[in-house]
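Researcher: Quick one. four chains, 392 residues in total.
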Amino acid sequence: MNITPTIDTFVQHFGEMGSRWGLNRTAGQICGLLFISENAMNADQIGDALGISRSNVSGGLKELQAWNLLRSVSIQGDRKDYFTTGDDVWEIARTLIDERRRREIDPTFSMLRTALLKEDVGEGNDYAVKRMQEMHDLLELVMGWVNEMQTLNSQRLQTLLKLGSGVAKVLDMTDKLSLRDAPDERSTSVTAQKPS
Amino acid sequence: MNITPTIDTFVQHFGEMGSRWGLNRTAGQICGLLFISENAMNADQIGDALGISRSNVSGGLKELQAWNLLRSVSIQGDRKDYFTTGDDVWEIARTLIDERRRREIDPTFSMLRTALLKEDVGEGNDYAVKRMQEMHDLLELVMGWVNEMQTLNSQRLQTLLKLGSGVAKVLDMTDKLSLRDAPDERSTSVTAQKPS
DNA sequence: CTAAAATTTCGGAAATTCCTGAAAATTCAA
DNA sequence: TTGAATTTTCAGGAATTTCCGAAATTTTAG
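Model:
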């Protein structure tokens, strides 16, 4: 693994960004390194390339495993474990989004659900309850959407993203043409949208 | 501000989650508190409600300001500053997403752009360059999409989310009907998806 | 089963982040 | 302008996180 200045910049940047992400610097660097490395690398090579201790590599790999970001490869005639990230950047992005949902949304969602189910939740705090309900509903919607996106393959996801807010236009068109494959939901929400 | 057990749980949870978010615990708590508080609160009230020092409140508020998450309110005949979050949860969510894009995607994107523009970027590392290019393209697409979503109002955004992957079905329909507002991209990607 | 190879765990040093009380700075009424 | 009210800054102690080297554990070839 020949570390050119450009690659070094890239890897270091991943180290910095790692911390904004719930990974520590080391895990970020490892992730960046494996991402741009053509071949799978073993722990010694990683530690060597990044100039960090063997045990630190171990911890970093463990953390990345917990994020489902690694694939381990066994090489014929070599006892060491070799690691890479996946080949498909879109697949990686999907994993990332899924893991972040799990860490950042799910806990809050279940906290809200639990709180809102409590009998004495009201107790003179109608506003607070209303707000929690609003947040709960928003999170439910977002989670559902994210889950649905996970079911699309990379190509289709790209198509959707490229279309961007153009989707809204398509929706308008389909409405005008009265094309409905889910009449109830769409018609209600679309009418709610323009109460005129 | 009457802190019921439920509200306390809520606020504490926000404190915990804050750290997974680039905020510190205090800022997270303040954010949670202001979110479920019907009335704007001043720094003393906040510090009092959360049991934290006045200077800590100051830092937390500053941080939340940097996230564009606060609205400050002046109350007639009171010199203190009063703070709330916005009324519309969707607006808050939008702000959050925008700020996270700014912090988590933009820097990586510009790093990649810079790196890929360097003359000597190749230098025997074709694979690394290819990967960086892939990531660059992905981020560009995601950023564009996020920006477009920001242009939609809350109602329309909800409609889109509710539709979820149903959008893909709508796309298929429009393809069948030869309705195209962006013919080149859509037709190519959709055919690529099913090469049969 | 044994022994070498490889990996993980663990204690503690170093670095970073968090939080407070005190002091400085700012704002505003009079 | 003065002075009280309010907010911000700052130094340093507390708490947390990161990281290393050594020791313990696991794995596997022979």
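Residues 75 and 82 of chain A are 7 Å apart (CA to CA).
Researcher: Thanks, that's what I needed.
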